[in-house]
Records
---
Amino acid sequence: MTATIAYDLPVANFIDALSATGHVTHSKYKKTSVTFHHNGGRLSLQGILDVWKTRPASAHFQSDASGRVGQYVDVNEYAWATGNTYGNCYSISIEMADLTLAPEWKVAEVTWRSAARLAGWLFAKVIKAAPTRSNVFVHHHWKSTDCAGPYIDKIFNDLLEEVQVWYKHFTTPTVPSKPTTPTPTDDWEAIMGLFNTKDEFIAAVAKGTEQGVGNYMSRFLKDEAGTGDTILDDTKAHRAAELDVLNKIAANTTPKV
Ligand SMILES: [Zn+2]
């Protein structure tokens, strides 16, 4: 069985059933656009296949009255959809069930929004280009026809915007989950919470001290200019002077009675 696209919502698979009608050309093209159509009727996912069994026509997808999606033609293949060779080669056609019939040919919001979501996915994963007025079409872009009807013409800006929103959604990387390492904190309780026992805490402090001394040593004592030893000697001298001052203060201080 020929697989449907790897969409993140269910796709009813009619690809082999449509192929059996013979109303498709099994040659592959690099698709560059999406074309919207309407049924000119209120057809179910199975219903449009039944039409295509007798009418020499097809499209890649259909969005039904409740926004469910069916696939009929491999996404890169040539569907008999636009009445235009170039359109059939390079565009992916999406049919939409009508909510009302002539003259308005209204399409339910759930139907066209579902079709737009699918188109956004196709631009992100198959066409690999951002959807614009230059590659999002209705059928009458390709030939003289009313399809996709006056209602879709009226809301076309909303339809295009919806395609663009979903394109952005499907091309935005998912946010990685929170890091598991603890974040720096000044909260003493939180810090102590990192250790199970007093010994763990002491070991961690000892390790930190050792690393600190190690960093100091490698930073200053491996100094090829030889200034590291001077800095270490200066530090030792400074510490000795401090201790001397502290001792003098201690010797001259008499506790008050
Ligand atoms: Zn059409």
---
Amino acid sequence: MSVGRAAAPHAERPLSLYHLLEPEVLADPYPLYHRLRTEDPVHWDPFLHVWVVTRYRDVVRVLRDFSADRTPTPGQLTAMGLSELNPIAQVMVKQMLFMDAPAHTRIRGLAAHAFTPARVTILRQHIREITDRLLEAVLPAGRMDVIADLAEPLPCIVTAEMLGVPVEDHRRLKGWSQDFAEMLGNFQHNPDRVPRILRAVEGMTDYFRSAMRDQERRPHEGLVNTLMNAEIDGDRLTEEEVIANCIVTMVGGQETTTNLIGNGVLSLLRHPAELERLRADLSLVPSAVEELLRYESPSQHTGRLAPADVELGGRRIRARQAVIAVMGAANRDPERFPVRI
Ligand code: HEM
């Protein structure tokens, strides 16, 4: 008789966010989030060496008040013996996602030129046309693969249009985005994947540099053009800042939107009464999208650093200690979102 090691029951397993590395926990992380929220809502994770925050009110405080300036600089990586990652860090430290005010306010203000209401109206019309085209292509078959036919191509094509680069490049942009996204919203870093991520950073940097040269010769609408020309009180983005923020905007919009569509359709199929309610009253669509974003958040967690020694949920967090704010758990906190029976 062979003696197998049965998996320990949930309650006996060490409380850690690392269980998200297990496919079955990733597929349904909510029992783990429930344990964290009820047993230790501001939890020192001894395996990840970070604080894990899961209650809605605490997550909001972390997102509002803690430091987003969390990506190691090339100098810090070199000191840790990880200088091979420097080309990635050089790009990340210039991305608004990893900045606090006033550096964040500056880049965000300049980038906002690309998202004026007039530009968003034009983009919205384009998005409708692209969606219609993708759906018309599958209508004759009477069936579709939601991810392959809609959720993946839609954000890729929209992103290329938004950037103002040739739409034919959208598959290349998607490949790079997928590789780069491994550095974001993720605490599992596979050293074997580093060469691929380095190639993606190099590829995107060259691509956007040549898109900028193209804009100089032949200016045309899009984020590349807007970021190149945005100016506030004589202040403009440098070439490296334009490239870094084109990359973060491109990457930020892809996987998230694919997952919103995929998770959203799956959630509706799992709740046929809600799907019927929505079909019967399309004015519910905007609030349904908000609710689906909450219920199956495409972005489940993000990182911050404590800005100083602070107290959160009765725990003392030291300055510069890392904190993971688990939005996926906060968004199901019954204290904020009472469960309807
Ligand atoms: C369902 C779709 C989306 C979700 C769930 C989502 C989620 C998020 C989250 C959670 C953050 C904050 C991360 C943090 O502070 O650590 C963020 C930031 C950002 N996202 Fe998205 N995102 C979505 C769509 C998009 C799209 C379409 C774009 C591009 C057009 C985009 C570009 C960005 C950028 C540039 C930032 C950084 C903003 C800043 O630092 O001020 N995202 N996103």
